[in-house]
Specification:
Layout (H helix, E strand, L loop, with lengths): L2 E7 L9 E6 L2 E7 L5 H13 L7 H16 L1 E6 L5 E5 L10 H16 L4 H18 L1 H11 L3 H21 L4 H4 L2 E2 L7 E4 L4 E4 L6 H14 L6 E7 L7 H17 L3 E8 L2 H6 L2 E8 L2 E7 L3 H16 L1
Parallel strand pairs: 3-10, 3-11, 5-9, 9-10
Antiparallel strand pairs: 1-2, 1-4, 6-7, 7-8, 11-12
Length: about 325
């Protein structure tokens, strides 16, 4: 069985109590903890290190390296062991729900940049262009990477991934009263048309009526396409996949990820950063990130106690009311 092993130590800042994490092939690992405890930074620094030896045949690897470079500067992460030519990817925490709006936003940005160029005050013009550039960079990654990932998939692997997905969804349907039209009500893709398809109504609906549900729908599809790229090893990281998902969807998503990691050929690794007890509780292994004794640290836990207790407290309060 393959593994990815890395060590995190202090640079000058932030202060870190050194820790090691080992990811085993065929498993889903959750990074949990309170806000600003290095969960996301650790995942991003890991992806940056993996990009150094990743297969450069895929253009999105270069953009991923750029997106995660700041994390490598902030955190000292040493890669101890990993498969060669591992293909890494990250779904950012600013969410896929914005991606389908991108073509419209891009046109607006282009027009605003044109106006900014005509502003007479140099300082004002510079600030406007800087803000517009920052907006573009925040919206761009998965807009361009999703079609590329889709383009590089292998048809046989995609059939296998869809088969795994459908089998798991049917198992969950049999265990609960939730049907697939409730778990996954929308069919979404990134196209020039600002529409999504509602499977329940069998009709297209405007994006502004679909809310953040499109985030979950796009994430499911991106996941299946990524696991359909023919490589010997993959690492798929998602920051806060619970965004836009109901608790049953969160459970279903992790169950599908576990099946994909085990059944798709190759060494497959999944890392999820999360605040959700449903995501953490369904994962194979949990690492708890915290700030103790004026240092950041991380340790494995058998159950997501900090998150489960918080969830139980909220439930108790609702019952008391």
């Amino acid at each position: 069985m393959g593994k990815v092993k890395f060590r995190v130590e202090s640079s000058q800042d932030p202060p870190v109590d050194p820790f090691e994490i080992e990811l085993n092939s065929g498993s889903v690992v959750a990074f949990v903890g309170y806000n600003a405890t290095l969960k996301s930074l650790t995942a991003r620094a890991l992806l940056y290190e993996l990009c150094q030896t990743a297969n450069r045949h895929f253009d999105f690897v270069a953009s991923l390296e750029t997106r995660t470079e700041d994390a490598s500067k902030a955190l000292k992460l040493q890669l101890v062991d990993a498969p060669k030519d591992l293909l890494p990817y990250l779904v950012d925490d600013y969410r896929l729900s914005l991606r389908a709006y991108f073509s419209t936003l891009q046109n607006a940005i282009d027009r605003l940049e044109s106006y900014a160029e005509r502003v007479s005050d140099d300082r004002t013009r510079e600030l406007m262009l800087s803000e517009l550039d920052a907006l573009r960079k925040n919206l761009q990654p998965q807009v361009f990477e999703y079609p590329e990932i889709k383009k590089n998939h292998d048809l046989d692997l995609l059939r296998k991934a869809w088969g795994i997905f459908e089998k798991k969804i049917n198992e969950i349907k049999d265990q609960t009263s939730v049907g697939d039209d409730i778990l996954l009500p929308l069919e979404v893709d990134i196209t020039n048309s600002p529409k999504v398809h509602d499977k329940r109504l069998n009709k297209s609906v405007p994006l502004n009526l679909a809310s953040t549900t499109i985030a979950a729908a796009l994430l499911w599809k991106l996941t299946l396409y990524f696991f359909s790229i023919p490589v010997s090893a993959r690492l798929f990281a998602v920051e806060e996949p619970e965004e836009g998902m109901t608790p049953p969807q969160q459970v279903a998503y992790v169950e599908v990820l576990k099946a994909l990691a085990r059944e798709i050929p190759g060494d497959n690794y999944v890392v999820l950063t999360t605040h959700s007890p449903y995501i953490a509780g369904e994962s194979d292994k949990i690492f708890y990130f915290s700030f103790e004794n004026k240092k950041f640290t991380c340790k494995p836990v058998d159950v997501p106690l900090p998150m489960a207790k918080a969830d139980g407290l909220l439930l108790l309060r609702s019952i008391e009311k």
